[in-house]
Amino acid sequence: MATQHSSAPVVCSDVTRRYDGSTGRFGTSGTTVTALDNVSCEITHGSVVGVAGPSGSGKSTLLHLLAGLDTPTAGDIQIYGTSIQTLSSRERTAFRRSHIGMVFQRFHLLPALTAVENVALPLVQAGDSRRKRRDRATELLDAVGLDGRHKHRPGSLSGGEQQRVAIARALAADPAVVIADEPTGELDRETGKQVLDVLTDIATDRAVVIASHDEYTLSRTDRVIKLRDGRRET
């Protein structure tokens, strides 16, 4: 289903992210909070890597940096040969659309659109033709086990079905990296298992990163990066 990407790993080298209290994100004015402190890791093509740690450990910060939603204060992040922190905001957005797929805990589907329309959204932004968008979205929904559900809106789908739509949408642009933030957090164990089956299957020809608190979810990954207080545990 996916085209072949370079086998080079995703590499974080000595990555630090600090936030000034004046931004209002952490702390109070005049304080600086280190959300991620000198973290290095590699995520190889064809692997599923878990990111674990308690609340405030830096998991979300690491995912945001890998997705190009934020940039490090220090260090280097390379995604298949591109140092994403060197890109402008517009360039990072374009890079993310082409190379990185995001899966969220609460699905983030548009309720007024059908499953096939939700999956096709990234291809609208890419400028693909209507027919190409429909064919690609249909292919992906079938691949995640939702044949026959193409015209259903999110409100008429179960939680597991909505998450599979979200995974199909994340794959629409054939990204080299898929980042999933607590993808089973809203699901029961059996439904979560089905979603993890899909995520591990798609890792055959891309890199998959899954942040989770759940021990079963983490047990399904090839290895786990453990964070605590912004630092990587050894």
Tell me about this structure:
The protein has 234 residues and is of the alpha/beta class. It has one domain (45-69, 88-232): Rossmann fold. The chain contains seven helices and ten strands. It has helices at residues 59-66, 89-99, 115-126, 130-143, 159-170, 189-202, 215-219; strands at 10-20, 32-43, 48-52, 74-79, 82-83, 100-103, 177-181, 207-211, 223-228, 231-232. The strands form two sheets. Strands 6-7-8-3-9-10 form a six-stranded mixed beta sheet, with helices on both faces. A four-stranded antiparallel beta sheet has the order 2-1-4-5, covered by helices on one side. Helix 3 (115-126) packs parallel to helix 5, helix 4 (130-143) packs across helix 5 and helix 5 packs parallel to helix 6 (189-202). Mean pLDDT is 89; it is low at 1-7.
What is the secondary structure topology, with strand pairs?
Elements: E1 10-20, E2 32-43, E3 48-52, H1 59-66, E4 74-79, E5 82-83, H2 89-99, E6 100-103, H3 115-126, H4 130-143, H5 159-170, E7 177-181, H6 189-202, E8 207-211, H7 215-219, E9 223-228, E10 231-232
Helix pairs in contact: 3-4, 3-5, 4-5, 5-6
Pfam family, one: ABC_tran
Keywords: ATP-binding, Nucleotide-binding, Transport
InterPro entries: AAA+_ATPase (IPR003593), ABC_transporter-like_ATP-bd (IPR003439), ABC_transporter-like_CS (IPR017871), ABC_transpr_LolD-like (IPR015854), MacB-like_ATP-bd (IPR017911), P-loop_NTPase (IPR027417)
